[in-house]
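Appendix B, record 7
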Amino acid sequence: MDGKPWGFSKTEMRKRLWTKLIRDKPLLVVGNPMCTDWSTLMSLNWPHMSEEEVERRMTEARKHLKSCMKVYRSQAKHGRYSLHEHTSAAASSREPIVQKMMKMQDSIVTKADQCQYGLIVEDKFGKALAKKPTKFMTSSPFIASNLRRRCEGSC
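Structure tokens (predicted):
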């Protein structure tokens, strides 16, 4: 729209999101947690930050995550779909709000390796498929059935 990232920890962006959802009624909404603060690698940085900085960052990350879950519940309530993506090791999947959403009747959780969908990384040695084990949570049986491919070691 205007080049601003859709970070839902910001009040302005949450308002814009709900305006758009109410107006456009999208059949599918795709979301994910803020990767930086939930990633496995970030856990190496936490001990080097002040408690205040960690708390500030996690408060923002949880606001974003809570907004995502609220959108997914709204989509389900209105007979529409959602898809939530996060790496298998992401700490966000252990958050109570996500655990609760995963247990809801219309939530389907699947696992897939993204190399099976063509994810490629490139470095000074060339290009290669990247396994990137990923969990998906969706309310669409069709989407879930197509996000189950696992790597058998050929990546």
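Remarks on this record: The chain has a mean pLDDT of 89. The radius of gyration is 17 Å.
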